[in-house]
Amino acid sequence: MLKKLQHRFVAIAMFALSIMFLVQLVAVNIINLYQRDSETRAILQIIADNNGVLPGGIDNDSTLADFLNPFGKLEINIETPYSTRYFVVELRENVVTKISTDHIAAVTDKAAYEYASEVYRNGPGFGVIGSYRYYYKQGAEKAIMVFIDVTRDLQLSFALMSISATVMFITLCIILVPVWWLSKKALKPVEEAMDKQKQFITDAGHELKTPIAIISADAEVMELCQGENEWLTSIKKQTVRMNTLVKNLVELSKMGEVADKKKHIVFNISEAVLDTASNFETTAKAMGKTFTYSAARDLRYNGNEEEIRQLISILCDNAMKYANENGTIKLNMYKVGKNIQIDVYNTCDYVDPASVTKLFDRFYRADSSRSRDTGGYGIGLSVAKAIVERHKGKIRAVTDGTTAITFRITL
Predict the structure, then answer these.
(1) Dihedral, CA atoms, 361, 366, 371, 373, nearest 10 degrees?
(2) Which residues, 6+ apart, have CB-to-CB distance to 332 below 8 Å?
(3) 3-class state of residue 124 by DSSP
(4) What mean pLDDT comes out for the span 34-58?
(5) CA distance 188 to 192
(6) Are β-strands 143-149 and 132-138 bridged in parallel, bridged antiparallel, or unpaired?
(7) What CA–CA distance (Å, rounded) separates 75 from 36?
(8) Predicted pLDDT of residue 63
(9) Which residues contact 236 (CB under 8 A, 6 or more apart)?
(10) How far apart are CA 37 and CA 135, in angstroms?
């Protein structure tokens, strides 16, 4: 249980950190893309306003530059015209009058004309065509189209994304070590409290056994001396129930401990299940109920045979107690892929579909009056669940309408 709690603690912590880092990563890269695009748009507008030429320096305190690039002032110096790859197309009365490709080597006049024709159809404004960011400015006498190659900016942006994602992953891996170590420290008080609880239950169980045995013995002596009566019968019945409760509590407490791997051996689970189930035939007949059981032949399983027998016994006993009058109980074991599946089915007067998830809770009883009559304390299914979990399996309850229930185990 502590291992599961630690794993959940680490998973939640790492998930929270991952979300935080992911938000930061996305924010940084979006800001970077926005900033680069803002700079490109500002340069496009400067070229368009300067008759298709990028000057070697501008006023960096420009309001327009600050507006278009809010994360930093636009820096343009005498080297900027040589590092910016752009071409310009001018139009007068919707006819191309000038094409300038002096500042780019990858675009010919013909290609520039084709780009301009497509942009013309899109209309004035900013846009993207291929690997170029463009600005189409329509003036009173002429129109000008400016195209800037943004391939380099995109490469740098993707490189930043890749680097930041890699750094995030490495950082999370590094953080995982102290988080795992701190989780052990954080769960230390929980572990100590659970150990004390188990020790208390074990000690209390041993202490209670003596008075229960004495009361039972005294009742037997009184019965021999005075004869049988309803009071002595009630005392004997309650001492048996109390003794069973104490045993189940101690057993359930021990179930929380780590399974002893030395007791896990390969055994014939088919024989174990059939042998255990056969013990309930007489009980079913005495109660007037129909009990059938079957198992696939010669199935082998690596586990604790004693605990598997106990598991089958608990589920069969539970089905006998809660099956309705003249009801039906069925036990089937079969192979499903690489797993072994065991179904224990019983009819009943009524089962609330909303309560099936609570059946494995300690001391939970769907029908407390029925449980008192049958001697149940709501512990048996908790023990069954603990056994299944010790064997790395799964157990769940499923309902068939509202008049039958099946406990399904997957090992």
Answers:
(1) 180
(2) 293, 294, 295, 342, 343, 345
(3) coil
(4) 85
(5) 6
(6) antiparallel
(7) 12
(8) 47
(9) 216, 219, 220, 223
(10) 12
Contact 134, 44 (CB under 8 A): yes
Confirm if 304 and 269 have CB atoms less than 8 A apart: no
pLDDT digits (tens, 9 = 90+) for 316-370: 988 888 888 888 999 999 998 889 999 999 888 777 776 777 777 665 555 544 4
18, 26 contact by CB (below 8 A): no
Alpha carbons 347 and 45: distance in angstroms, whole number? 81
What is the distance between the alpha carbons of residues 206 and 201, in angstroms, rounded to a whole number? 9
Contact 409, 395 (CB under 8 A): yes
The order of strands in the sheet holding 290-295 is 290-295, 328-336, 339-347, 404-410, 394-399
Domain boundaries, the chain: 85-149, 260-410
Q: Which is it for the CA torsion 319, 320, 323, 329, positive or negative?
A: positive
Q: Is residue 391 within 8 Å of residue 304, measured between CB atoms?
A: yes
- Rounded to whole angstroms, what are the CA distances from 302 to 123, 200, 248, 265, 273? 75, 33, 25, 5, 14
CA distance 359 to 344: 14
What is the assigned CATH class of domain 260-410?
alpha beta
CA–CA gap between residue 108 and residue 115 (Å, rounded): 11
Write down the residue that tokens 């509590």 correspond to.
Answer: 249
Q: CA 153, 159, 161 angle in degrees (round to 5)? A: 105
Give pLDDT tens digits for 109-147.
999 999 999 999 888 999 999 899 999 999 888 999 999
Helix H or strand E encompassing 251: helix 230-255
Cα–Cα nearest to 307, from 362, 360, 251? 251
What tokens appear for 265 in the block? 């051996």
Pull the structure tokens for residue 223: 């019965």
C-alpha 367, offset from chain centre: 33
Q: How far apart are CA 336 and CA 352, in angstroms?
A: 28
Contacts 24+ apart (CB under 8 A), 297-301: 297/270, 298/268, 298/270, 299/268, 299/269, 299/270, 299/333, 299/335, 299/340, 300/266, 300/267, 300/268, 300/269, 301/266, 301/267, 301/269, 301/340, 301/411
The answer to whether residues 134 and 126 touch, using CB atoms and an 8 Å cutoff, is yes
Quick check: 249 pLDDT over 80? no
